[in-house]
Hints:
Its cofactor is Zn(2+). One of its GO terms (molecular function) is ATP binding. With 240 residues, this protein is of the alpha/beta class. It has a single domain, classed as HUPs (Rossmann fold, 3-Layer(aba) Sandwich), CATH 3.40.50.620. It has eight helices and five strands, in the order βαβαβααβααβαα. A five-stranded parallel sheet has the order 3-2-1-4-5, sandwiched between helices. The chain is globular, with a radius of gyration of 17 Å.
Amino acid sequence: MGTEGSRKAVALLSGGMDSATTVAIALRDGFEVTALSFSYGQRHSAELAAARAVAKQFGITQHHIVDIDLRAVGGSALTSDLPVPKSRSAEEMSTDVPITYVPARNTVFLSFGLAWAEVLGADDIFIGVNALDYSGYPDCRPEFISAFEHLANLATRTGVEDNGRRIRIRAPLIAMTKAEIVREGMSLGVDYSLTRTCYDPTEDGLSCGRCDACILRLRGFAECGLEDPAPYVPGARPGS
């Protein structure tokens, strides 16, 4: 994927199915991708290993892992010892902002992506946020993406110099269901066995199958008539 002399872009790559699909879309659209991942104090390293594997699959040679200590901020089950909610229904997921929300995480990540884009001379930043499927995260909404793009063009040299260039925050999955994301990724050759979405995996990287992220992911594959190729703890898959 990608072409010589293609446009430059920064893509945020967590190692999950959404960010992997987003990277595949950026490459399909002819962008020369620099991938950014973050070691932010998350409770597991499985997603960073997945991010490395995804970058390798796509032949991305510029993949940077940035260290940020969001554990110092706290307030989330992903950066603390708070329990991760399990086995919740769609209705329960959609009632409020979940404890797995990391305060201002996407604002922080996009800010790093914006700084990197300025240095690289890239006008496009890709992020795999998804507003559907009950995520409940305020920083995954179209309003947030639009607002950050506006900020980016006020706060950067690229945005304020009169050269016809603008920073674009691209969120190609924003209005897609998990099933639609799976279909798109499969059509682009994403190896979903490499990706990890789980909020509470085992130490050896097996997904729990019961957290909100696993439930939505498994449902997306099931709606496509497919089995999720990622490894799960025994008995975690529906019907197993």
